[in-house]
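User: Run a structure prediction on this.
Assistant: Running it now.
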Amino acid sequence: MEQRIVALSTVTIPSENTPEKKRTGTLVASPKWKYRGLADTIKFEWAIGQWKAGAFDKITPSRTVNKSQPKSDEWAEFETDLPAISLSNLSPRDEPYVAEIWFRDKFSDLCVRVEDCVKIVTVPEVYAGTITQKKLKYKLSLFDWTPLKTIPVSDIPLDSKVRLHITGRNDTDSYQSLGIHWLVYDPDGAIIRNYEDWSHHHCPGCDHTFVTSVGKEFSLNKTGTYTIKVALSMNPDDPVIVDPYIGDLCTVEEAPGLEPPEVKILAADNIQDKSATLHGKLIDTGFWSRVDVFFEFNGSKTAKVRMDEGDEGDEFEADLSGLTPDTTYDYRAGVDAVGDRSDEMDTQYSEYKSFTTSKEVVKGFTMRVINPKPTADRWVAGDRGGDPDKPYTDGYVDINETWHWDGLVPDETIGFYIMVMPASGPYLSYDEFDIRLRAEKNYVYDLAAHKMGEE
């Protein structure tokens, strides 16, 4: 029998650029031989190793397989595949790898060696990524930021603080690290922000947004156009830029003038000996979206009321009490800005108006009810606390009659009740509410709507 290796396949193992990283691969041998003789069994044994110090040092276990050899009266060529051998932790810097294949039958014990059977080549990895979004937001006040805006952004107010949001995507078919590096230039070309960061283990097609960290915002303290250079990179050990951007970031304009808020004073009413009601109107909130309105009268001020730009054109009021009879009061409306830069705006006032309290004590009012239930027969009303110095009906009032209160009217808001009775049996309705009653008024209480009005 003549046996010989005619061909043994070699394996090419792709690798990353960095030679320190180990490689893995699989080696397959397909020996050919010539044979003439009776049918027999050939035992194949093979392994991978290295020649070191004149000896063969196996790095893989031997793989053994028996193959049936058919009878052949003439020299004939035969071929078979041997079990594959898996290789790992290979390095291009190792000694050459050698394959030993043994042929054994009843008459032969032959070994064939294949030198340099493993070829390790360096295949550069292809990196690919895309900057998918470039956005920023800027600060409006202490706690308020604008929504994200796509770069470039126009007409940002001077001295605004800015945060950048840059999103990069992994366009490869393997997990990658994504890195960002941006440089921000002011209108004079000076670098005002140099930022760099890495984020790791992003799957194919996944993205990551790099955001200016809290406290690392930058201020736009010059008018004009700011520019930016952005580089999206991969492979942090030896960064490769996969997508750059160079262009305008934003334009900055002078802060707009502070238009003052405006209020208008209206005529006072409900003027009595010790009380009155002041009225005003919010005309414009000016530069701000929120304001506080109030009244000033003879050196005193009422409590402030918060209004916003949606209330422009609406009226506001304040009840005054504890006034001096037969006295003239000068009054006006005032408005204070609320929010960022409000400290730059003084209180704004309307023109003055005046009213004079009555000399004599004004007493009394009338009240009646409407829309009672069909079985209603009489009603009773008064101060909820039962104070005899405050308005109350002296017994029941017929359902169709008007109650006359001839006493003093409280100079304050009181708790009030109205109870309606049938001719016999339990009460039909009982309403409680707070009210500021006025002298010389004629009140009507709607039992169906549960609402007090004036005639």
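The chain has four domains: 11-120, 129-253, 262-356, 363-454.
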